[in-house]
Amino acid sequence: MMVESASETIRTTPSNQNGVSSLSSQSDGGGGREGGSNGDTNGEISPVDLLHLQQQQALQAARQFLLQQASGLNSPGSNEVKQSPVQVPVSMAMMSPQMITPQQMQQILSPPQLQALLQQQQALMLQQVRPPSFLTTLSSAFLSCGLQQLGSKQLAFQQQLIQMQQLQQQHILNLQRQGLVPLQPTAAMQTLQQAMCPSDLQQLWKDVSGVPSSEEALKQAEGLDLSTNSSNSTSAFPKAASAHLPLHSLPNGQSHTPKRDSHEEHTGSHPLYGHGECKWPGCEALCEDMGQFIKHLNNEHALDDRSTAQCRVQMQVVQQLEIQLAKESERLQAMMTHLHMRPSEPKPFNQPVSTHPKPTQRVFPTPHFGCHPITPLRQGPSVISSSSLHTHSHSHTHAVGPIRRRNSDKYCTPIASELAQNCEFYKNADVRPPFTYASLIRHAILESPDRQLTLNEIYNWFTRKFAYFRRNTATWKNAVRHNLSLHKCFVRVENVKGAVWTVDEVEYQKRRPPKMTGSPTLVKNMISGLGFGSLNASYQAALAESSLSLLNSPPLVTPQSAPSLNMLHVGHDDVSSTVEQVNSNGSCSPTLSPQQYSHPVHVKEEPTEVVEEDSRPVSLLAGVTHSLPLPSDERDLEEDLPTEELE
DNA sequence: CCAACGATAAACACCA
DNA sequence: CTGGTGTTTATCGTTG
After folding, report:
1. Which of these three, A511, A540, A560, is where a domain ends?
2. pTM, rounded to two decimals
3. Which of A54, A216, A241, A270 stands the most exposed, by the fewest C-beta atoms within 10 Å?
4. Boundary of a domain, candidates A511, A527, A543
5. Which residues touch strand B (CB under 7 A)?
6. Chain C bases closer than 7 A to any CB of the protein
7. CA of A560 and C1' of B9: distance in angstroms?
8. Of A422, A414, A437, which Cα lies nearest the Cα of A580?
9. pLDDT tens, A131-169?
């Protein structure tokens, strides 16, 4: 608790003593900067187009997806994916080249903009339905009529959304039925639902629609879930009986019948009507028959800010579901690939990658799938952590670049499991591992029998485990030394036969503060953007906030050997988390066996903390995960679950 | 824009 | 002197 300031103080001094300036050779390689990719498209596409695209995409995504699945799961490897800041899963990527994915759209446009667009579109639709001239002379009565039509348009749109959801659901169910989705039947769904847990939605609704009471908000949230869950039944059991229609009974007395609606209604089913209730998100108003429902629709859900906003929210919901769906499908592909092919040919991956990864270029195998890096389909741009593809600097410069970006290390990548699962891959592929030097070193050390290594052994570990480090030596060795020295978490211990390095786990934990502290953006990213697979652990951890049950059920991330509940969460941080469990199976003292601390000759700052450590490991097993600095993984969880004792 | 971080490079010290 | 090991400082890029 004392130190840890050394480095900062250093940094604050901008002194440029030696204008070293020798870094010129960087050749600006990483300049590719995709970071801004979300900015500019703004004025280029007309609002209507955007909305059209969005709607089309929703449907197209489903179609594509089904096609894709049907056609033997062969999806074109695409690199276009990099366009989107958030890795867009394959199915999305397939259409992303020309089309803006909903996701992108969301990013491109601010909520207000979206809303504005929606309104514009609605206005436009209005105009389409009625001659503009007519508009000019609208009486209030006519206006209401117009609104009504709009309402029906909205319904149509809403219907599309719901259809999407149905498709998604059905597909998942199909897969489950076929046993292709190993998740518990509910797992995927649950996850999806969890992805938009009521509280999120509630907030969403609140934000958007200015819902008055929280109760109502809750209702709406439920309504959303309903639309997701029960939409099947809604349309599956059309209640043909009550399907006599009522268009005439419209409030405004207009006999005009919107083409689409009339069709819907005559068929006896309305996507927004089922089980005698209005299925408008958050509504649940009881309607005895279709006529009443239509009336209700037009009265309560006419075009206004709120409806518009709700519509927008629904769009988001759909988008997120799409994304999840795509990710799940990606996962499925990997799994099937794994099952149908012999898991032992990392070759396909080496190929594309072989020409070294450039600085900042991190080519990921397919790590997050939890299977071997097979996936011949493509080398997984898809589920890869969002940072993986950015800045593809293709310039040939130093072979050594940043090992990984922070996000993957901090809250996305379960390094331990990834490494474990893909060790073969890393061994053979000249790919830069997406981990920090620190975590790698730590892993190396913890993995050793004594949890201590000499520098040279560390070197060896690097070269043994990673093809990448076989090639580019000088720099990374320096980096390793640098890291060892710099980080307090690495403790040099004078040994009989020399010095060895050990890990001070406490320190290691200390130096990684932020992570996913439930920051809204993060959560959002998790839900919508980042690799689902890779996120699962942390994702679940996050979700655990609202429901712990999820944690137990779907071992999406192959909980290493999770003995206890606590251990369940372990694994989404660093390399070592696995190691800790494996190595310490009994004693579970991840960091220090007494022996190691023979005599910390050189402890960077203060070995003081060391004292505590003895107790900590125990607490791990005991399930007392607090009180002391937790191993990274738990810590992640800890931050997500304020106080979850897991009970 | 800023701070925190991580990566990289390099200077320098120590020692066998 | 050399090379391995460690430490320290500086700079740059990314991220939040």
Report:
1. A511
2. 0.36
3. A241
4. A511
5. A 8, 11, 18, 20, 22-23, 359, 398, 400-404, 406, 409, 435-438, 474-476, 478-479, 481-483, 511-513
6. 4-16
7. 38
8. A414
9. 333 333 233 333 333 333 444 444 454 555 445 555 555
